[in-house]
């Protein structure tokens, strides 16, 4: 998605791509493209009666190990022992590793309130700091200069050089919070390499991984390296903010003015706040591939007093590339009753859901109105099951979908391209499409189930699975009565297998077949075969943008679900790395069973084809739904338009979403840039509430992008097959950004939407626009509705970037907004000819 001012966005993206850091030597093996956990297998913690036994691997050069203990990872930890190597008998090894151990009688009764830190010291008592870093993909470095500062913001001093990607330092009085390292790439002549803007190039600070200490806790053993937990009882707000904002600034941010490139990072983080009251943190920033969540049964169990702000990675407040992050299940409050400075500025675009929130401060979902922000655009958002008591909105959000929420102060402000409130209580939108506006309100949500979530109950981790709701309005939870909503509680350790990066598909499938649900911790999961779900009611739940990818010899796909009821796939990302038939398939072709009593749910599921790898990738079909009664609740299905390895013949993908099942319902559906039909609907009684699409930017010439046997310009952004008798879609945005690379070639789309002319097929509230200037969309639905952009011969259809709106289309009659005037224009459409579809079955 790149609906930005065209002068700013692409330049920034190209620079980011050029500065991207690609290979993390401890977690990524270029030989087999597998991502593995870097947690040493010798680092362990276990109960021995009332005592806690910890073990750790030998660190080269260490003469002793100082052990610290505390109730949290970030909070105060006290030294409890020193283990000297001399005279100490090592524990039995793990493989070839030498392992040391220590047994501690802990004063803390809570299992998850025991955290240990093991610091290796040399013979002089200096902390041994082993660091590693990513290699710059484009810097041609043959060696690296290592620099260190003793305090945040201090002067960096050169401490050594290396021709590898690892360096060992020894430091007196090492402060684990303040000391930082910087790595400067050098060329063959030993000269410092500069960036493409002439400034000195550094390996991203966040790419430097200190391993000066080993930490272990029961949480780390259960969840792995990149699920981080905070506790207001023990952790102060400044320490929490320092870590969270460091992750954002140093690792998971990207900016044209600096070398950091979080947008296509391989890192993944899940940041979790235990119930309590959090103060003193000021402003928190949530970066790429990061989920941020409270761990209470209710949002109001986790109270934050301060701001959350999402800085724009592009110049001028342009948030159109602010993807892949989430917030969930907490309350945001002002610093005092008179405070109006704290703010929830969730300035995001795709794949950035906000769920189950209680927000009592002003909320704005872009950077409009902020001094110095020249292009404060954002482009697409999803909000559900949340309550807002103060003003909220987004003047320059191009589209936004809100479901089952409560606006207590005022309606979501702004009226740009495509805005939908659905099942919202308090102050929902007043529909204004008839008068040329962009707002739609739909009273009730026909059938939906909220996404499951992790929470703490009595010191144990649980997963709450919300119940199915019919014809619903408003939020599911009630803080006045303490009711989290109807649903089922599952025990994480008993009912789930907690997967970690490096787990194979065979291992995950064995756990599913044994009756376990799967909880995916943050990281990458290379799948030698598909994850196959044949058990009704199975849950695949991710955190921290856990990412699945089919490996080279796995042509079938990432997730294949049998025609069974009640499966949940939630909070997972799927990335195409090689050549896949499907990425996700629900049910086999021709599935017939009725699952209306227990639908399958796809919630916060994000697909990407291209952008991450430099080599070609392909997925024939990203998501195919053949089963009946499936609910899609926020999907972003994306063939990349920028990033690495992006091109018409490089990241190839024909179809985004294909639906052949009956009674399939989509809420907040985003599909972009596919080379044939973005969405192809062949099942009966389908419903889509809010649709956002960008057409492919890059057809090289018109003749290579023709449908209906080569007789019609382009492939419709939303296609309902002629055999379908009943279909409903409301609030659709279809946008073109044609041929920015081929400035002398014009590419056109005949119809943004194609549907059969039948009484029970209805399309409501459509907007089209063109942003590229080298092509256009001739009609909105079936030959009705005035076009946008330029025709294939270069003649003007309308002024560029002027939106065109369709109020309704049904049974061959379209009611459209003309280019000028206030009167709707009634037009008669042309039923599209039928055709064969060449997708795998």
Describe the overall structure:
With 841 residues, the protein is mainly beta. Helices cover 5% and strands 41% of the residues. The chain is built from five helices and 71 strands. The longest helix is centred in the N-terminal third of the chain and has 15 residues, at 237-251.
What keywords describe this structure?
71 strands, 841 residues
Estimate the strand proportion: 35-45%
Major pleated sheet = 15 strands, mixed
Distance between the termini: 29 Å
Could you tell me the mean pLDDT?
88
Q: Looking at the structure, what is the overall shape? A: globular
Number of E strands: 71
Unreliable stretches: 2-40
The chain-level structural class is: mainly beta
Question: What is the percent of helical residues?
Answer: under 10%
Number of helices: 5
Q: Using the CA coordinates, give the radius of gyration.
A: 27 Å
How do the strands and helices of this protein lay out in sequence?
Blueprint: H1 9-18, E1 21-24, E2 28-29, E3 34-35, E4 44-48, E5 51-57, E6 64-70, E7 78-84, E8 99-104, E9 115-121, E10 127-132, E11 134-136, E12 143-149, E13 157-162, E14 166-171, E15 180-186, E16 209-210, E17 214-217, H2 218-223, E18 227-230, H3 237-251, E19 269-273, E20 276-278, E21 283-284, E22 290-294, E23 302-305, E24 307-309, E25 325-328, E26 331-333, E27 343-345, E28 354-355, E29 358-359, E30 362-364, E31 382-384, E32 387-388, E33 392-393, E34 399-403, E35 406-407, E36 418-422, E37 425-426, E38 439-442, E39 445-448, E40 453-457, E41 460-466, E42 469-472, E43 487-491, H4 492-495, E44 496-499, H5 505-513, E45 517-520, E46 524-527, E47 531-533, E48 539-542, E49 547-550, E50 559-561, E51 568-576, E52 579-586, E53 600-609, E54 617-625, E55 630-639, E56 651-652, E57 655-659, E58 665-672, E59 679-681, E60 686-694, E61 706-707, E62 712-713, E63 718-720, E64 726-736, E65 747-754, E66 760-770, E67 775-781, E68 788-789, E69 804-810, E70 813-816, E71 825-828
Parallel strand pairs: 18-19, 19-22, 20-23, 21-24, 22-25, 23-26, 24-27, 25-28, 26-29, 27-30, 28-31, 29-32, 30-33, 31-34, 32-35, 34-36, 35-37, 36-38, 44-45, 45-48, 46-49, 47-50, 48-51, 49-51, 50-52, 51-53, 52-54, 53-55, 54-56, 54-57, 55-58, 57-59, 58-60, 59-63, 60-64, 63-65, 64-66, 65-67
Antiparallel strand pairs: 1-11, 2-3, 4-5, 5-8, 6-7, 6-9, 9-17, 10-14, 10-16, 12-13, 12-15, 39-42, 40-41, 41-43, 61-62, 66-69, 67-68, 69-70, 70-71
């Amino acid at each position: 998605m790149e609906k930005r001012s065209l002068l700013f966005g692409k330049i920034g993206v190209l620079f980011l791509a050029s500065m991207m850091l690609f290979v993390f030597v401890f977690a990524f093996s270029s030989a087999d493209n597998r991502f593995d956990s870097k947690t040493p297998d010798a680092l362990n913690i276990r109960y021995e009666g009332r005592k806690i036994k910890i073990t750790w691997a030998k660190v080269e050069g260490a003469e002793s190990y100082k052990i610290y203990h505390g109730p949290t990872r970030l909070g105060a930890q006290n030294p409890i022992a020193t283990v000297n190597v001399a005279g100490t008998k090592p524990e039995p090894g793990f493989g070839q590793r030498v392992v040391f151990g220590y047994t501690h009688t802990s004063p803390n009764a809570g299992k998850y309130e025991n955290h240990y830190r093991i610091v290796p010291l040399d013979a002089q008592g200096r902390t041994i700091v082993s660091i590693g870093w990513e290699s710059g993909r484009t810097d041609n470095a043959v060696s690296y200069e290592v620099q260190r500062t003793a305090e945040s913001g201090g002067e960096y001093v050169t401490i050594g050089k290396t021709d590898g990607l690892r360096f060992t330092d020894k430091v007196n009085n090492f402060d684990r919070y303040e000391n930082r390292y910087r790595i400067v790439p050098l060329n063959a002549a030993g000269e410092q390499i500069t960036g493409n803007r002439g400034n000195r190039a550094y390996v991203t600070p966040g790419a430097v991984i200190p391993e000066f200490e080993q930490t272990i806790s029961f949480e780390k053993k259960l969840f792995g390296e990149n699920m981080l937990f905070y506790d207001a009882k023990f952790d102060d707000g400044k320490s929490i903010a320092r870590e969270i904002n460091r992750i954002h600034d140093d690792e998971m941010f990207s900016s044209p003015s600096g070398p950091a490139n979080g947008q296509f990072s391989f890192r993944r983080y899940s940041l979790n706040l235990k119930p309590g009251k959090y103060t003193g943190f000021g402003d928190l920033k949530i970066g790429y591939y990061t989920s941020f969540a409270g761990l209470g049964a209710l949002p109001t169990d986790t109270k934050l007093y301060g701001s959350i702000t999402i800085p724009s990675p592009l110049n001028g407040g342009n948030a159109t590339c602010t993807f892949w992050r989430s917030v969930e299940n907490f309350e945001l409050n002002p610093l005092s009753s008179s405070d109006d400075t704290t703010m929830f500025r969730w300035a995001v675009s795709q794949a950035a859901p906000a769920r189950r929130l209680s927000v009592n401060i002003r909320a704005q979902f872009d950077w409009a109105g902020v001094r110095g922000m020249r292009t404060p655009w954002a482009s697409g958002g999803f909000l559900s099951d949340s309550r807002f008591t103060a003003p909220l909105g987004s003047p320059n959000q191009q589209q936004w979908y809100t479901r089952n929420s409560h606006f207590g102060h005022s309606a979501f402000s702004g009226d740009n391209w495509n805005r939908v409130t659905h099942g919202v209580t308090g102050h929902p939108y007043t529909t204004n499409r008839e008068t040329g506006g962009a707002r739609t309100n739909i009273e009730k949500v026909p059938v939906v189930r909220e996404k499951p979530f992790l929470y703490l109950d009595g010191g144990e981790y649980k997963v709450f699975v919300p119940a199915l709701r019919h014809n619903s309005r408003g939020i599911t939870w009630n803080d006045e009565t303490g009711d989290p909503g109807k649903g089922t509680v599952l025990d994480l350790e008993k009912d789930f297998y907690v997967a970690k990066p490096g787990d194979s598909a065979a291992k995950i499938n064995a756990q599913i077949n044994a009756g376990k649900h799967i909880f995916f911790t943050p990281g990458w999961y290379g799948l030698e075969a598909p994850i196959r779900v044949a058990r009704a009611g199975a849950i695949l739940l991710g955190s921290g943008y856990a990412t699945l990818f089919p490996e080279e010899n796995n042509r079938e796909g990432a997730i294949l679900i049998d025609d069974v009821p009640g499966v949940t796939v939630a909070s997972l990302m799927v990335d195409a790395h090689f050549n896949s038939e499907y990425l996700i398939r629900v049910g086999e072709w021709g599935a017939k069973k009725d699952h209306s009593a227990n639908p399958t749910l796809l919630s916060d599921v994000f697909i990407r084809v291209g952008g991450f790898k430099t080599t070609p990738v392909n997925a024939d079909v990203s998501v195919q739904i053949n089963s009946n009664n499936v609910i899609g609740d926020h999907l972003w299905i994306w063939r990349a338009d920028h990033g690495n390895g992006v091109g018409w013949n490089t990241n190839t993908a024909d179809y985004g979403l294909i639906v052949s099942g009956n009674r399939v319902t989509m809420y907040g559906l985003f599909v972009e840039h596919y080379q044939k039909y973005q969405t192809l609907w062949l099942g009966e009684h389908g419903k889509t509430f809010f649709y956002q699409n960008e057409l492919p930017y890059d057809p090289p010439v018109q003749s290579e992008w023709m449908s209906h046997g080569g007789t019609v310009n382009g492939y419709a952004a939303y296609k309902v097959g002629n055999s379908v008798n009943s279909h409903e879609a409301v609030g659709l945005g279809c946008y073109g950004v044609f041929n920015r690379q081929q400035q002398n070639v014009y590419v056109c789309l005949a119809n943004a939407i194609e549907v059969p002319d039948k009484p029970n097929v209805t399309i409501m509230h459509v907007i089209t626009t063109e942003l590229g200037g080298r092509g256009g969309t001739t009609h909105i639905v079936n030959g009705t509705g005035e076009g946008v952009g330029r025709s294939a011969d270069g003649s003007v259809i309308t002024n560029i970037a002027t939106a065109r709106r369709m109020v309704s289309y049904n049974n061959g009659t379209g009611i459209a907004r003309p280019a000028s005037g206030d009167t709707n224009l009634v037009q008669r459409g042309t039923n599209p000819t039928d055709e064969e579809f060449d997708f795998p079955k």
